[in-house]
Fold each of these.
Amino acid sequence: MKGALIINIAKALLLARWRQTLVAAIGVMFSITMFITLLGFMTGLNDMLDGLIVNRTPHVRLFRDVKANEQQAIRLFSNDEYHFIQSIRPGMSSQVVDNAPAIIRSLEKDKRVLGVSPKVTAQVFYNVGTIDLTGVINGINVEAEEKLFHFDEYVPMGRALDLKTVPNSIILGKAAAEKMQVEIGENIQVTTSLGERYTLKVVGYFQSGIQDIDKVQSYCSIATTQKLIGKPASYITDINVKLYDILLAPALAKEYHSVYETDAEDIQSANAQFETGSDVRSIISYAVGITLLIVAGFGIYNILNMMIYEKMDSIAILKATGFSGTDVKNIFRTIALSIGLFGGSFGLLFGFLVSKFVDNIPFITPALPTIKTFPVNYNPKYYFIGITFSLITTYLAGLFPSRKASKIDPVIIIRGK
Amino acid sequence: MSKRILEAQSISKSFHDPVTIPILKNLTFSIDQGEFVSVTGKSGCGKSTLLYILSTMDTDYEGDLFIDGVSMKNKSEKELARVRNEKIGFVFQFHYLLNEFSVLENVMLPGIKLGRYSRMETEDRAMQKLKILGIHEQALKRPNQLSGGQKQRVAIARALINDPLIVMGDEPTGNLDKKNSEVVFDIFKELTESFNQTLLVVTHDNEFAARTHRIIEMEDGQIISA
């Protein structure tokens, strides 16, 4: 009942000055619109740029690093003394993951794992006439790569699945293919690190959007790659694991390291710089959005102050007839908050519409084959933050004027007449 | 003996800026139920200051004030607002109606604030008060559509909405012409006679004061005759 009365009075005061109210609400609306659009666009861009790396990168990578044996032989003989061992060199360890087929089987049973994709890496030279270009051939399981790492999205020409069906086929990096001037369907020659020459048929181009990678990387099936370097079917250099929850990656990397006795690297430590970039962009968007809101907040502050000066008499009589200072304060707080609520709500709506508009602006770049329009993120989180910020700012803007209104002494106003 | 509504016990007040000037000096008096009291005196004698102290709006004074037998000293701002809402009705020289609300709503506001009756009942009661004052036909108009006399009558209706123990007036006829002053006086007269309403009116209009039950005459912050 009392709340309704306060709201009623607030509404009457608001409507009595509806033009000012509208201007204040439009200020809030504009800043929330910009906030939503900016954050949606920025995070859309972030997600896309991260996606370039994150989608292509395993959450946990199991491999065997070239490094010195952690357990030097002398320590096995006697561990009580302190040993001075100098000039330690990597031992005879190969780069192959031991017992890979068994590890893959065990990982596929793990409930936290979305999928597993084994990989064989081979260093080769692409032979172009008399020139040899260095290159890396990745032997992959095409189906697993498509499912887990969207491999097909990065094959703009040709069919990724041909790797599996066409014998001795290769998907060549776009930049490398341009250098070598080969078309799809033609053959190329590669020299392996063992010195042998192979002829491979180009079935497609691979384009990651990162030029340096496209110059070097090519893809074959696992079996073809193993044949190139003359290794058996159990020879796997990397096991790429994709998890359901990317945040578990560091913990699982540690676990796999001890369980499978291989090196394990998680995505967070492998790509720390991308996180930093995303964070900085987010901070900038928040800073701009909040600045706009603060400016709108000052607008509301001014309008409420003006309203209080204009309505001095009304406040005085309300107090004389039994409204307490708190009641008066609540009336002005309600005014401020409703400006925030209405402005904020319309801001969300317009923010959504402008985001939609941005989402439809064509954005075609050869570096990003899968992107056709500007990327926009519609995460409800930003809408929630937007409305929360608008309410907080308007509340703060209303705080001082409403306190001032509550302190008005009716005697001074009434006797002053 | 009828009920004691208001009692002032040695109330004093001084202004301290820039030097201490006493405004009210040790005032003691009381008002009983159904009395129509007027406070008169020359301009600056402290009669309005006294009224605002009695109305609980001014809390900066020495001495004690009892309304309905309860001391007003040491009450919080919120409690005093409640007392004003429930027990005191005001009529000022200026009407102080809110132009954002209709006449009826203006009268209802203190009633809804008190919350003793439902909204429907409050509306009904507000209508009755307007009828007593003969302006119920203007109920749905805005205050700025009314004449000065009509506005003052609406203000009186607003003062009466919560059936206050006492209605206080600060020069209620000060802004009105002869005819309208007469109307307002007649209303006050009727309120005391028909409804046994207690009234305390500050005025410098001696003619007005002469027709009330009791005159408190003030000079230099002191009561010279009660």
Note: The longest strand of chain B covers residues 4-15.
Amino acid sequence: MEKNRHFLVGIFNDEDILIDAVKKIRAKGITIHEVYTPYPVHHLEDHLGYKRSWMPKAAFMFGLTGTICAIVMQTYMLGIDWPMIIGGKSYIAIPDFVPVSFEMTVLFASFGMAFTFFFVRNLLPHRVPIIFDRRASDDKHVMAIDLAANSFSESEIRKVLQEVQAEEIYRKDLTEEELKGNFITYLVDLFTNGVTSSSRKLN
Amino acid sequence: MASTQHEHHDLHDTHDVHYNLDERFEFSSKIKKDVFTILGIGIVLFVIGLILSMIGGGHHHASIENADNLVVSINGGHEVNPVQNEQGAGHGSHHGAIGWLQRLYANLWLNNVFFTGISLIGIFFFAIQYVASAGWSAGIIRVIISLSRFLPYMAVMMLGVFLLAHHDLFHWTHHYLYEKFLADGVTPNPEYDPIINGKKGFLNIPFFLFRMIVFFGIWLFFAYVFRSESAKEDLENGSTVRYRRLVRFSAFFIVFFAISSAISAWDWVMSIDTHWYSTMFGWYVFASWFVTGVALITMLIIHLKEWGYLQFVNEAHLHDLGKFVFGFSIFWTYIWFSQFLLIYYANIPEETVYFFERLSRDQYAPLFFLNIFLNFVFPFLGLMTRDSKRKMRILKIVCTIVIIGHWLDFYLMITPGTLKDAGNLGLLEIGLAMIYLGAFLYVVFQGLQKLPLIPKNHPMLEESLHHH
């Protein structure tokens, strides 16, 4: 497959230098594709101009679904379908329902969030996410700039990265599939070529 | 040239801001006026409530006498002889002071317990920060410990009210409960209570007073050490001796507090319902105290910032405090519900009596449900989102509700057991709570003046100033 996505990767050693670099680069009008850091860098997302995630709202909705399911389930089972007196309480004894409702709220919220996160980040079974530089999980901050998304030339961006004290700059070319492969292509590949070929090597 | 300088400044904007680390709180006349307004309204409401209660006292008196007769007739089951009748009347006179005086005592006790708890949480929260090596709170640590300034006054009040009113508040203090026979040594004493007699080893006045005095003594000792060590730290630049000593003392305090707060909860609150017991009660009272204490600390910090102090406090500090209020509101609910569910499910009369007393009376039942709404539903939904924990306005509303809600929680722990049917939530209750709040704020603000607001030599102060 043709490697038609071109990136410029900048490696940073220090989080303060990284934040300054992000501010300066964005001030110059250059779009940053993504920044990978070994640990959460506070306020990096603000400097990158990311909007607040909608995930908490999803979590609330999942939780609420769980609560409602639990209450409906228990009311129907114990109150309507097969009314049964337990411990001398009424059929629909609300305090008895609380622990189960609580557990189901937590269950729905956590499973819902895990699967939503996998789906949103394209993290599906046996898929390896795009990794620009493996040192991003060790001791370096990695910034990727998509050349196609910017009107500046490669040498201009390289110069800016040098100015903001990136300690290493190199170009990386990826195929479209590597960047945003989808689950169907992956499955087809898995069935036609087997596990070894479809699981992308870490590089 | 100018542009590069500007750029340099821009790059380090978060690091170059200088805060006045020597700032001192001034209890200005404007703030004093606010505190005296609370105190004044409280006194007016209290006096009106007391007068109303004195006028309407006869009614309560009568109803209690009826209740007493009822108890006697149920207890006896058999013929009531004249001696017993006399005995009953004698005890009637014990409770005879009911009406307004007992109502006053019960309310004094309620506010004593509530505000002692808040003052204690000041020390406890301070100790937690040191033991956990917390950096974010270094700048606000003086505000946290300032709550303990009210503890000596509470010690005096606690002791005074107990000595004055123990017969009106605590059923177990009546000596006749422990006597198997009447004065003649032959006739069985109808008032003899084998269950309470079995608790005699722990629940007796000398031991109760001993515990109270020892606990207050040790708490006050720790409060003094914490404040003075923190003050001495201001004079020793670059030394961590004081800090390390505070960590050690904090660790000891937390261990002692774990035991003493639970025992205080049994003594001061649970023993009112002498027959009843719950193994969760210590935690329940602690949870209520803790969330109130943190809500009050949050309120103090927000107001101090609004008055121009503690300018380093930003959304992140408020977010952390908000998380404490949110989390411990849920913790309180967890404890409250665990206690309720087990008793409800097992349905053993000697345990359900606690909830029966509260749910079967018209004046307590609505408050019982309001309690859960104010202390769980409201803070849970109000502080759920990230943004709401970072906004002063929302925090102020929720913290106020939480403080009122937990006062109500203590009202529901103490009043039904002491005043039974005569309990009421009127001007007297509200007025007295406001008087206590006013006095508490006065003492805390006076105390805040004594030291600089920011511990400038705290080894982790920088982290707190740049907390984000």
Note: The first helix of chain B runs from residue 2 to 11.
